[in-house]
Specification:
Blueprint: H1 3-6, H2 27-38, H3 44-51, H4 55-67, E1 86-94, H5 98-106, E2 111-116, E3 123-129, H6 132-143, E4 149-156
Antiparallel strand pairs: 1-3, 1-4, 2-3
Helix pairs in contact: 2-3, 3-4
Length: 170
């Protein structure tokens, strides 16, 4: 989605918080996010020109978006090229309260993505490991050893066909 399409989706810019309590993002902020998704190192002056703001105004808005936790600006790597040759999605079933298990798994450096779900599994966790032995250690010795974990089901990635981070403005 491009910035001209964003205006129809944006919430009331006069309200700092939307109905769910999350920060309200106006069309200009969404356009700034879109610019940064295309190139996270794009200069604020170039972004300002694209969205109709001064460099200082863009800098201020970007800082506000960062402070509110709306976005992060990070370097994204391809795990295979930096030595992580095994990825898997792990479904975890929990007895009792899911929160403590989710928190413990989220604290593991190998867990890149932790989601509480309603369905066949209580948690879905994306794990990135160096190799199969590392993955086995994480699942067998660390995840399955957590109090409350009833079972796990692993889905080992054979090939990653698509991974994008552009969904924030569509």
């Amino acid at each position: 989605m491009h910035s001209e399409d964003v205006a129809s989706r944006s919430a009331d810019p006069s309200s700092p918080r939307g109905p769910s309590g999350s920060p309200t993002i106006d069309a200009v902020s969404l356009a700034i996010i879109e610019q940064l998704q295309e190139d996270g190192r794009r200069p604020y002056a170039a972004i300002g020109k694209a969205v109709g703001l001064s460099e200082a105004a863009v800098r201020q808005r970007v800082q506000k978006l960062l402070d509110q936790g709306v976005m992060q600006i990070v370097a994204v790597t391809d795990p295979l090229t930096v030595g992580f040759r095994r990825q898997a999605m792990v479904g975890i079933n929990v007895e009792g309260d899911v929160d403590p298990v989710a928190d413990a798994v989220a604290a593991m450096p190998e867990a890149e993505y932790v989601v509480m779900t309603a369905g066949s599994h209580d948690l879905l966790v994306e794990i990135v490991c160096e190799d199969d032995d590392h993955l086995l250690d994480v699942i067998n010795k660390r995840i399955r050893a957590l109090p409350g974990v009833r079972s796990t089901e692993s889905f080992v990635y054979l090939k990653l066909k698509k991974q994008t981070y552009m969904w924030g403005t569509r």
